[in-house]
Design brief:
There is one protein chain. This protein is an all-beta fold and 175 residues long. The protein has one domain: Jelly Rolls (Sandwich). Helices cover 0% and strands 65% of the residues. Strand 8 and strand 9 form a beta hairpin.
């Protein structure tokens, strides 16, 4: 049984070009464009935190889906409400599509924290992503959303519109 607190989870496997699982359990990305992270969501934890720090080769967006058995769930079941601040502009939007998106990343160091609430439970999954970067000097995006299917997922599928290098870590949260 898992202990209380925040715990780094080692994926059972990863697929995609330029990916490797480090000795401590995080995933290193080098020249990657997409990745499937398998076996990170289990009955040991209800909630998860995913941290990604990356340097894209060009301006790009990050797209994410929950996955089961190595396959991302690609139906139009993802709803996102977003608030953003970029330069002197503050705005927001709402979308329903076939993935969640962390907004555009610049070609300098960028990162985001992605919280998933109940992806392994056979119920709709909620999420929150906060991403930040250096576009226009500095920007921040805050996204909250749901995945409407009452299904159990054990992994995630992440892709971007450009190649990237960096590191991804998945943590289980238990109280």
């Amino acid at each position: 049984m898992a202990k209380n607190g925040l715990h780094l989870i080692t994926p059972t496997s990863v697929s995609g070009t330029g990916l490797s699982i480090t000795a401590n359990g995080s995933v290193t990305m080098s020249g990657a464009q997409y990745m499937t992270i398998n076996g990170v969501f289990t009955g040991d934890y209800d909630n998860y935190m995913i941290i990604i720090h990356a340097d894209p080769a060009s301006l790009t967006s990050w797209n994410m889906r929950v996955a089961s058995g190595g396959t991302g769930e690609n139906g139009s079941n993802y709803t996102v409400q977003s608030i953003y601040a970029d330069s002197t502009t503050v705005g927001g939007n709402r979308t329903t599509t076939s993935y969640w998106q962390a907004n555009y990343m610049d070609t300098t160091a960028n990162g985001f924290i992605w919280h998933l609430y109940g992806p392994y439970l056979a119920q709709p999954t909620a999420m929150r992503i906060v991403d930040a970067g250096s576009r226009n000097g500095a920007y921040i995006n805050d996204h909250a959303g749901t995945h409407s299917l009452s299904s159990s997922y054990d992994g995630l599928y992440v892709w971007a519109g450009a190649t990237y290098s960096g590191r991804l870590a998945v943590y289980g949260l238990r109280k």
